[in-house]
Amino acid sequence: MLLPPKDHAVGKMPAKQLLLHEEVLANGLHLRCREAGNRYFGDYHRVVVAVEIHLPLDHHGLGKLDPALLARARARYGASLVTHKTLERMGVAGAEVTQVQQ
After folding, report:
1. Which of 83, 93, 101 is nearest to 36 (CA)?
2. Are 42 and 60 in contact (CB under 8 A)?
3. pLDDT in tens, 23-75
4. How would you write the chain as a 3-class SS string?
């Protein structure tokens, strides 16, 4: 059985995750997808894609919304709304990891 290096905390995600994809959509959404998975048994992997979605509250596409609502949102949440989504699949063979990540 292979053990993780001594400086690697078991069960924790690495502090620095590989950026898989980043895109800014026409509607202002800024998407970042990062790899957060691991190999857990033989050639089987847990593929985890951590998705971070930012919506800047000053984007011109939000101009149709009530200005008072936007002002309250900026006061409460800051310059942008941020949400996170985790996509996970277990038991992925090593040869299929890249395909599953996409």
Report:
1. 101
2. no
3. 999 888 999 999 988 888 888 999 999 999 999 988 888 888 888 988 888 89
4. CCCCCCCCCCCCCCCCCEEEEEEECCCCCEEEEEECCEEEECCEEEEEEEEEEEEECCCHHHCCCCHHHHHHHHHHHCCEEEEEEEEEEEEEEHHHHHHHHC
Q: In degrees rounded to 5, what are phi and psi of residue 66?
A: -60, 125
Going by C-beta distance under 8 Å and a sequence separation of 6 or more, which residues neighbour residue 80?
30, 54, 55, 56, 57
pTM attached to this predicted model:
0.69
Q: How many residues are listed for the chain in this entry?
A: 102
Could you give the C-alpha distances from 9 to 16, 39, 61, 86, in angstroms and in order?
Answer: 14, 15, 43, 21
Pair 39, 48: CB distance under 8 Å: no
